[in-house]
Design a protein that fits this description.
- The complex is a heterotrimer.
- Chain A is of the alpha+beta class.
- Chain A folds into 3 domains: 1-39; 42-100, 2-Layer Sandwich (Phosphorylase Kinase, domain 1); 105-187, no CATH class.
- Chain A has helices at residues 5-13, 28-36, 86-89, 91-95, 119-137, 164-177, and strands at residues 44-49, 58-64, 67-73, 105-107, 115-116, 139-141, 147-157, 179-183.
- In chain A, the strands form 3 sheets. In chain A, strands 1-2-3 form a 3-stranded antiparallel β-sheet.
- Chain B contains 7 helices and 10 strands.
- The longest helix of chain B has 18 residues, at 169-186.
- Helices cover 26% and strands 19% of the residues of chain B.
- Classes of the chains: A alpha+beta, B alpha+beta, C alpha/beta.
- Chains in contact: A-B, A-C, B-C.
- Chain B: This is Formate dehydrogenase.
- Chain B: One of its GO terms (cellular component) is cell envelope.
Chain lengths: 188, 242, 808
Amino acid sequence: MSYTRRGFLKLTGAGVACLSLSQLGFDLTEARAYATSLKTKGAKEVITICPFCSVSCHIIAHVRDGKLISTEGDPDFPINEGALCAKGAALLSMSRNEHRIKKPLYRAPYSEKWEEKDWDWVLSKIARRVKDTRDKELIEKNDKGQTVNRLDSMFLLGTSHASNEECALIHQAMRGLGVVHMDHQARI
Amino acid sequence: MSKAFLIDTTRCTACRGCQLACKEWYELPANKTKQVGTHQNPPDLNANNYKLVRFNEHLDGETITWNFFPDQCRHCIEPPCQGAADTVEEGAVIKDEATGAVIFTDKMAQFSTEDLDYVRESCPYDIPRWDAKTKRPAKCVMCIDRVREGMLPACVLACPTGTMNFGERSEMLALAKERLAKVKKDHPNAMLADQEDVSVIYLLAEAPERYHTKAVAQAPARNTRKQLFASVRSSLTSVSKS
Amino acid sequence: MTNHWIDIKNADSILIIGSNAAEHHPVSFKWVLRAKDAGATVMHVDPKFSRTSARSDFHVPIRSGTDIAFMGGMINYVLENGRYYKDYVVDYTNASYIVSEGFEFNDGLFSGYDPKSRTYDQSSWKFDLDSKGVPKKDPSLKHPRCVFNLLKKHFSRYNIENVSSVTGVSKDNLQKVYSTFSSTGTPDKAGTIMYALGWTQHTVGVQNIRSAAILQLLLGNIGVAGGGINALRGEPNVQGSTDHTLLYHIIPGYMAMPRADWQTYDAYNKANTPVSTDPHSANWWQHKPKYFTSLLKGWYGENATAKNGYCYGLLPKIEKGADHSYMFLFDRMYNNEITGGFIIGLNPMNSVPNSNKVRKALDNLDWLVTQELHHSETTDNWHRPGVDPKKVKTEVFLLPSAHRVEKEGTVTNSGRWLGWHDKAIEPEADARSFGAAFVPMMNEVRALYKEEGGKLPEAITLLNWPKTYNPEYWTRLINGQFTKDTVVKGTKYKKGQQVPSFTALSDDGSTMSLNWLYTGSYTEEGGNKAKRRNPQQTKMQANIGLYPNWAWCWPVNRRILYNRASVNADGMPLNPKKAVIKWDGKKWVGDVPDGGWKPLSSGKGKHPFIMSKHGHGQIFGPGRKDGPIPEHYEPVETPIDSHPFSKQLSSPVYKFVDSSMDKLAKPADPNFPIVLTTYSLTEHWCGGGETRNVPNLLEAEPQLYVEMSPELAEEKGIANGDGVIVESIRGKVEAIAMVTVRMRPLKVKGKTVHLVGMPFCFGWTTPGTGDSTNRLTPSVGDPNTTIPEYKASCVNIRKADKLTEIEM
């Protein structure tokens, strides 16, 4: 039976993990054909960074047709030299696990369920909550009459999962709103 | 020239990068496991884990030792499993000449439960497993797909500490010798497990049973290890030699 | 980290204390083992024998919460046995400074203590100054009030006997660690200290780290290759998120949060800019107004002018001494003082102490916005076990978050390396990055203010804020740009071009930068340096593993901080075999030096510790809230009711909150005789929100356990694998018993003390795995940081009749 490389890729790509060589027979030339059908061959390599501890191991993400097909340590990065621990090695299944939240969800007061919403709906609703809270509760002067422009009743918690860019913009936004209750993993 | 692994357990931190990297590369599904009082999980090799880090701890006086053993197929030089499988159907287990990788083929899906048990029992390290429903055979295949492309096996690439090493057999033997000499300074009983018979050589700092009951070849009761290898050697087919 | 990951390989001695590096920073062990291969001794001081201990030369079990006693014992050993590096101590530290009369230490309390407010008046913790305002010094170290002699006196109580009886560490083990590590107090040897949350999560956390700073300064281990104090930061970008400051008490670049008593821009600068009159002190923070002004220009753009104090007036101001950290936030929430807010990429319902209280507190919010990859105990708190959702008023928004591989941007590792990650794939379904959620959300708010007006609208409408989120736009702004055409050292820069270095930042409004520490990371000349992947290095750099062309590192690509302390007055390396920098007669070679001035012997040099006002390493550190020198205090919950160092049992200034749910066990409480320490594990992350949802990781560590010694298990009739109940005065938690010889009972003040350890990554949204360990831990915190005391509290343990949280 003949097997195209593409066909074999489909087989492995579907997550069939057994090393099915029976259809190839035990002829070693065909086993070699199997071996050349490396699942990452020809895939785009993208550099990403492990999202866990602060070693920040670099990882190569293999992408084909817009889909992540494999991740492994970047052997060129001088710190991890291709190595990864259990968590870093599990990046592929982390990004595609079935528990991911896919749409904005909304839980109304006293409700017993989540409802799916679109981004425009949730963002405008959130903006309204922020503004109403701020307009009602911003403290412009303290007891001593000093200007404090502080919104004590609103807070932000998180996150060391954010990039530097995201941290910078979130900090700026929060200070603009007058938020002072701001904290994240650095204090845990 | 065939390939070999050197697994230097004196460097292992049981980070389980290898265990997970293997699972991820072959996209093996997760087992539902439970905490039963040990960090070793899943408890044993199974159809979804070709690689398993075994944990064994000891208290000797006030000295604590915690041994880690990244268990996997040894890719025997003359694989008993191949001999056993051949008695059922020739070529069900093949050995890749270029790498020395021992590979179970789908022919084994036709095997009866007794046949499969026979193959498993022939393994002096108790490695082979199958998916009970599909009889899908499962064990380390030396990442032959990667190795043939000049890449390291997934577990070796992932290893941070130099526990997992892979290369030409001669290189690995030389490295093993060098590492052993160094380890012996602190651990006079250090050893290389079954180095002549296998392509996956473990460097152990102390007695093998302090790592895992099958860290070195365990012969079935009636046979010594040498006898075991001898008994299967005669049944090897010419396929692996071709 | 003062140094960086690869640099660990240069150490001759590695002390891992307050860290379980092999389990929580597994790849660090690549470099620990390289050092070991080259002959280094690796020591692990930790309550539990872990995977780190397994690969160390020796493990030293210690009672959790007694690290200052342990370190104080080592400082005493170093001083008594003359193991310190004398030239370094005299030249580069404040050991020779004369401390003013009036500073005192008596029976566990420093001068200035006010028991009513539980705070210190720190005004007596100061140095004698000469007529020019420079600290008086005695380089002979003989003056009875010089720092060196006060230190000696202070730690003389920390003899082996006292230390052993409090820490539970055997005298032999103490001698072994002290003698090994202090052997690095010579120019040709270096020792590194690797610590992590095992040191910060105590009511004396900051002083734990101070004890390391003092020891490393005495041994001359700061600024050198293979030395340093290396904080193994806990989370993925926690270095970056600290630098860019998702924290209440500072603003980006480690500048103080504006305070009510600093009403104007000028008042802020005056209060926060140190002045030194020593011509040899670089006193780097004298430049703060440039960094602060550039930050304000970044936030308010063209609207920030000299005339309006760069919009300083619009910013929120906190009250002096106010604490807006987690612990106090949740207490205020519990007391109905908080209306709503955001919790993103964080699971405080699992990871903040006293979970029973914080879970209840969250119910008091009117609205909550969350953004996560998965449902968590926080997003789904409103229907947690035992709660009727119909009675919970909170309106909850849960936004789907993009995963690391689905977004681009920079992160900063513990060694301060800035790395760029590309976007590999599009976000799953409707998921978005935090940036792609917050930028349009703020635009919605801005639009509402423009449309409707409201309170202080200009604080929001005047913000320099883009229409959409483009990560690299922000990377550029973080570096900083010129706001008008400028000439720097002969090079012309146009308005809008990138600022080349923080030395070009200005306080006249001509530059903007969202973080001065990152200026130089994205320049006209070098582009986005986080993307650099060039392994090129000189022989000298290669020798100690410096990669100056790979990525970029703050500040100014300096890989080893305080590196001017690694050379003598002539700029020659103290240890030529592992030189970090060297003066070649005309310029510095090797790493980027801590300031480019000529060596000290030229007369034009500067003291090496350029970030401290007087330029010397601070053995006496007057800036902390709990004393200028560390002192042993027991954890707030402790199995003993006295200790030999003083009558002051626990820290006199630790922080706490008070409510009916914030109970504390009394010292040596017979109902809670066992010390609990909590931790992460290799296979899960923090509160577990991400990793519990990755089936392959859950397979490896599926359920909550408690590690205990066989001796304790026997005492309690518990077998390995049994279901047990762990109980503190605040709550109880189900777990599986992991009976292990790796936990040893300790002898403390002559009696046996048991320790148990539990991870905190399991929660009810992953059914059958267990629920928050932090239901046990207390809301007490360090007086400087308010980091809670997760590492030492008191519990009891018993076999469970049945389990409801864990599937057996």
